[in-house]
Fold this sequence. Notes:
Layout: E1 11-16, H1 20-23, E2 25-31, E3 37-45, E4 48-63, E5 75-77, E6 83-86, E7 109-115, E8 121-122, E9 139-142, E10 149-152, E11 159-163, E12 169-175, E13 188-189, E14 195-196, E15 199-200, E16 214-217, E17 225-230, E18 244-248, E19 253-257, E20 266-272, E21 276-281, E22 287-291, E23 296-298
Parallel strand pairs: 9-13
Antiparallel strand pairs: 1-2, 2-3, 3-4, 5-6, 6-7, 7-8, 7-9, 10-11, 11-12, 12-16, 14-15, 17-18, 18-19, 19-20, 21-22, 22-23
Amino acid sequence: DRVTSGGESGLLSMAFARDYASSRRFYVYYTDQQGFLQIDQFRAAAGAPNRADESSRRSVIRVPHHRSNHKGGQLQVGTDGMLYAGFGDGGGGGDPDENAQNLSRILGKMIRIDPRPGGGYSVPSDNPFRGRSGARPEIYAYGLRNPYRFSFDRRRGGLVIGDVGQDAIEEIDYVPGRAGGRPPRGGYNFGWDVFEGRSRHESGSAPGHLPPVIQHSQDAGFCSIIGGYVIRDRSLGRGWTGRYVYSDYCEGTIRLARLRRPTAPRGGTRLHVDGLVSFGEDGRGRVYAISLNGPVYRIGRR
């Protein structure tokens, strides 16, 4: 009764705290009854690890969102223990509210926060825009249209974002991690809505625009890029390990790429999933593909 679903709304993601084994804390991202973006914290029930203790619910953050599309939806806990969330630009065509390039607004951004056990959050002292006049301190990266699925390389810390395009280009954005597998420092501008992919979308300025490493044309049958994970499951062999796996909701081919800037060499596999809407990664690094039609597949060797 807290969730509205349908279209781009619903229960969109969940992530486990780094200290989950002791704290039992996890987070869920969903659209509430007003269509606003809500992140809540729960604890697993004592003695019943597959159940949440409903009474433990605490609100972490709620972001107003007044249109039906571009809800974002991904949560990830980085190797630094911080919670990262991707928010869409507020919906409508072409970012009509000019949110994505506006650092005083949280839509069209990725945020980095430190949830408090009792609810709410604090802003990490090393966030890139903390202390900048007129900027929201939670912001980690900006210039995003709809970062529906993003991830961190569990070994090297690199950030990879599948940003859903407007009417021409689907893109994959990438920033390498830091020493020790730490996430990148943040502060990146991925260009929307001045740029769509590597092409200019409208007039204006996008300071420090970081172009995508991969882009696919919607003329080739792509419609909604589905970001995945850098594969660290050694059981898949050399042809897969260390590659980034991703797909597209309409095109459906599971693809692999060697992530590097400025562009990433890529190729298709013989695997295809109809209605592919998400990838997942478990604690052992095994990767899963999820279809809107119902099945959940694990990528493995025969």
